[in-house]
Design goal:
homotetramer, alpha/beta, Beta-carbonic Anhydrase, Chain A, 2 domains, 10 helices, about 45% helix, Carbonic_anhydrase_sf (chains A, B, C, D)
């Protein structure tokens, strides 16, 4: 594995900075977390996008949130075909092993994945339709969401689709029997959020008004 | 979707705290990130575990790292079957669209997923072998790694397997043609790390010594 | 005092969040509270337990409740020996200087202190009988309460003892001459509560039925 | 116990409000806290004063902080006389049973207990010198602190004494063998804070400069 390189210096330096400050301040707590295991209160499903910081927005400290991040914060529908399903595995582990109290799906503005999904579904990005495109195949999860926004004026569609991604994921979450059971027994609650990167606002899906409302 | 609930108050309060401090201090930067798009320097593949904080360890600010988090920080092998592959999609997007300079696989101690993998492969957790277990199917990616550590004394096996998870993922990364090409042309470098949660130490895989060495 | 360290960063960030939101919203009120002094309506005696939140349960805003918290929400009997009595001092200050209208003793389920008291009195924790055990000596206040529940079936004893802790404290409160006088003149009323942490229910001691009844 | 009354209606109403909102939002988490026990990260020693809200300042959520509150946030010196010592019991439980990572002493401005201590030590409140005064006997813990500030101009003395109360408490904490041992082995860190109620500022004691510095 000669292709594996040493870490760039800037990352090494940041690590040493963390070790000398945050780690040192919290040594006893980290020791306990290692010895006693994690007990997170919530799972958060967020985008890989470098501009979305769950840990920053919610002041998430070590041990608080179980965080899965994938492109466009998507949950695929329940499919028990024996294949590798990273997102489904994370949800299963959070709900059945860690017994988190909340699953939060956090969408965001200016999402590159959603933009690609829009273009693919609108016929503007045929390369994403190709079987060989992992991004295209992944964003295919959102095709039912696209159908719901396709009649909107073009300039509104992408933003609407970002919010649909949150709703489709929440719907898909409920197709997992262990999620449905936990929700129905009151052990788990589901939440949908959308963050505007530019103005820092946060909207949540309100079941009553069936819309996203600013927090 | 009556099952979707409003966000718990403690998270709402934390968000307002972030908005009034971190966001307000960096408003202009967030505005630019939204308008001009992200330009992350590296992709980090890390575990969902609530005790592992990439953003904390590397002082990751908004816009710096494209972060994918799944159980046990695994990369599955390249498989072009047209199915949903969240991890592969994230890698494809990072390498081909965002053109990150580094991909870092960050493993960690006390990993519940790796422990489950060990027990499954050692025949101690037959339920994980079941086709219906998402965690089991996901951890199956690590079976070749288990074979390499199975001859070790039992008390050393899990920790060794945590490090194997980093190596298996690095090997699998190279099965993606676009990764291999970018590595070979010098546009991309791969890195393997393992973090001890309790003592805060960080080890990196060194190609020369073929071992993990403390940073 | 080289052993005194700076506050961990996560607490500093939380403080800044509070300062920028709750404090800023209520600045004028905090200013008045500082200038004119406190005028709390009630004193609450509660447990140190991190799961019992007087301020949350009663929506207690700044300036409303004078809150004393000790292990197992105990009031020791009136003893005028010139020693340091933190609980007695707090009661004296609340009743004679602040002239609160109510003193509320708030017990709770799953109380570690009460569990220790039970084990000590049942002969299962001899180390707590030791003169050197502060927890043991403190829980000794509850020995009369244990005698009243010791004939119950074992599975009912700890919960019964948690409620006895409220009653013993109320009885001990009346041994303070200034409490008794204030109660008899109608200036002060005493209240006994027990909170179930898990189901969120709250029971109060009703003098008429001589039992705890759900609110 | 005919003197025990039912809870005032305003508190009953607040409880029902909490039950219908905060409790309902976090039901699953409260259930887990009850079943699995508390695991607080820090102990906070704060004043009973109704204007000082640890839970508000640090956004303290259920399960996070073990909170002891007494008059003037004092820690008496280690005394193993077999008497009831509520503060010492709370510290013993937090450090030896719960194994918290931090003990924070939080002082504050406009403290009535400290004002009384000042007046007593300055000969202006002879009634507090009386053996029968619980507040006087409790504040006696602070007499060594008064000696250190008595040469200051009168208008500065009370505020200085409020900060001395934090330092005396930190010094007394170290007289407890189990605290000293935990500090020296790196399992526990001690912190001193002083909050200005009126302007919301927070100062911490910095060992290097031997002074309180704004956070």
């Amino acid at each position: 594995m000669q292709y594996v390189k040493n870490l760039p210096t800037y990352m090494v330096q940041r690590y040493h900075g963390w070790k000398a400050t945050t780690y040192t301040e919290n040594k006893a707590w980290y020791r306990r977390l290692a010895d006693e295991g994690q007990r997170p209160r919530a799972m958060i499903i967020s985008c890989c996008d470098s501009r979305v910081h769950v840990t920053s927005i919610f002041g998430a400290d070590e041990g608080e949130f179980f965080i899965h991040r994938n492109i466009a914060n998507l949950v695929p529908p329940f499919t028990q075909d024996g294949d590798h399903h990273g997102t489904s595995a994370a949800i299963e582990y959070a709900v059945t092993a860690l017994k988190v109290a909340h699953v939060v799906v956090l969408g965001h503005s200016n999402c590159g994945g959603i933009k690609g999904c829009h273009d693919m579904c609108a016929g503007l990005a045929p390369e994403l339709e190709d079987k060989s495109s992992f991004v295209g195949r992944w964003m295919d999860i959102m095709r039912p969401g696209y159908d719901r926004v396709s009649s909107l004026p073009e300039e509104d569609r992408t933003r609407a689709l970002e919010k649909e991604a949150v709703l489709v994921s929440l719907e898909n979450l409920m197709t997992f029997p262990f999620v449905q059971e936990a929700v129905e027994s009151g052990r788990l609650s589901l939440h949908g959020l959308w963050n505007d990167i530019g103005d820092g606002s946060l909207q949540q899906y309100e079941a009553e008004s069936r819309s996203f409302v600013a927090i």
